[in-house]
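Fold sample X.
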Amino acid sequence: MIKALNISHFYGKEQVLYALDLEIKKGEFVFLSGDSGSGKSTLLSCLSTLLSPSEGELFLEGQRVDDIVDIDTFRQNKIGFVFQFHYLINYLSVFENISLAALQDKKPNINALLKELGILDLASRYPNEISGGQRQRVAVARALINEPIVIFADEPTGSLDSRNSTLVYELLSKAREKGTTVVLASHDLHVQEYATQMIKMRDGKIQ
């Protein structure tokens, strides 16, 4: 599903990833752990195609990422993203934020997804009218709307309390049960309760 071969990355002259090899199978919930500066967020960015590694090759569903002609369309169709900050547009309602990200044929599914995630009553509200935990659940809905093959999440609960963190993990776990692969980078060791595989980073290497 995801295969990385000899992935290295540099920021200027500083090397942050060192010749990493890894493989993630379809339907896994992978927990990338490690201290700040360990390289986990950079690795996640490389795996998610948001960052091109300085060296090495990345394959998604058997496709070499460097050979994909229209990477933006590929991302929209195949990949969901959840970040620590929700990146919702404040002048759009919850429904409109998700609709903006949705493929045309997926737009009719928005209300059903909001209902499934327990936030249908927020559809007409604006981001500044709902709580931080609710905003992050909307961000998860936005990531799920196109039924991606994989969701990448970078510290998605970094600004949430334990209750809302658990809600986000459970939503991602339910997506995994339906066949979506989840790759999540976090400091929060509670992710282990949901993960099928744990990858621990240290100094740019997999321990």
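Fold sample Y, listed below.
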Amino acid sequence: MSNKHPIPHRKQFLQSTSQSSSAYESVRDLLESLSKEQKRNQELLISLGFSLRSFTNIDRFLELMPVIASRLVGVDGALIVPFHSDGRISREQIYSIPYNDTDGLIQNVLNFQQGNGVGFGSNETHIRELDKLVQGFSDHSSVYATSLVARGRQRGRLYAFHLNAPFSFSDTHRRHLQLIADLAGVAIENNFLMQQTRHHESVDRQLSIGAEIQSQLLPDHCPVIEGIELAACCRPAFQVGGDYYDFMPTRPELTGKRRERGRWAFVIGDVMGKGIPAGLLMTMLRGMLRAEVLSGLPPDRILHDLNQLALDDLAQSHRFVTLFYSDYEPISRKLRFANAAHNPPLLWRSEEREILRLDALGLLIGLEPDAEYVCGEVQLLPGDVLLFYTDGVTEALGMTGDRFNEKRLITLLDEFAQKFTKAQDILDNLFGRIDNFVGNNHHLEDDASMVVMKIHEEIKLPQVKQSTS
């Protein structure tokens, strides 16, 4: 009787078992290889993430990118071409591997003229030309290219290539390369931000130093002068401004009461412009003016000589200066003055309850070499109030779009001169009205300075009726 299901021969069975075992070993080896590759890739990505978090040198970080890219994908070469913030190729930050075999490629990129143009990184046509340049480096290479992008802007290009044999870049390879490119883009962007922060910190330090120097150049207190009271304040629009005021004894060798009764020079000025340049020019003019004051010349001659001294420096900077110079003699209460196109001070007359503008003909300092100035004179009386100011006061922009203007300033000076007996109170209330006019959340567009000079009231003794007996 025949057997329908014959038992396999022992040899055939052993061969089948051997083949199954071999297949199993192959699958196991493959899984182990994949596991090792996956673990290696994870370690590479972890190292890359750590480097991104802790790097302090962008060049070292970018130099690492081609190494990570080639090992992660399994190709023998990679190239990174970063861009500057203005889009130009960052020639000093191009890195590649293998180092010896890609010198020619790097040289080709360095010689790529379009890459030197501002905005290259945002020009897709030029980017494609760069890609062709890299792809054409070797006839036998397989190249994959992707962009380094951060905050929507191209920050460079990353290339991976196999030089001497075809290579198929899988979706996984592409994702890995894009991840590296994204991390490199973030690193470049962070470096830009750090550079900007350092620059701003440096500028802030310079501004702080400039503001400190300028604040030291402005009087930190008003002098004691017989028969008058002074109050002054400067509000710079920036940390460093171009406004200037000063009080200078014409005979600084005097001391005590003799100094208080001696002649004093009062000056207020404004350099056209704001910020550090204006502050530096005003500092220069201050030194020149202080030297001129010692000459004892009348105000018109002081401005004439100052104009001659400062003309060359102001012409080179393309800036001009408005300046009101006056000198006051406490004994006679006479004020002499000359004006180089500055805002005329306002004089409130106590007796008449009216306001006069103290003005005299004269050109800006630094405008004409032969500029002439006129000297004016006024007799100040008890109770009078004199307000010196810069155009940042009258040009202050309000919340409605109007300017503070001279008319409003005159109205307020008339009100406060009658209401307050102290110069400081008049000054504080004037600035208070300006602040309300501009608004709490707004800043002055230009430096604003004011000096208030109040002539002491005369002490009136009560009249005694004479006896008729």
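Sample Y note: The mean pLDDT is 83.
Also: The longest helix spans residues 171-217.
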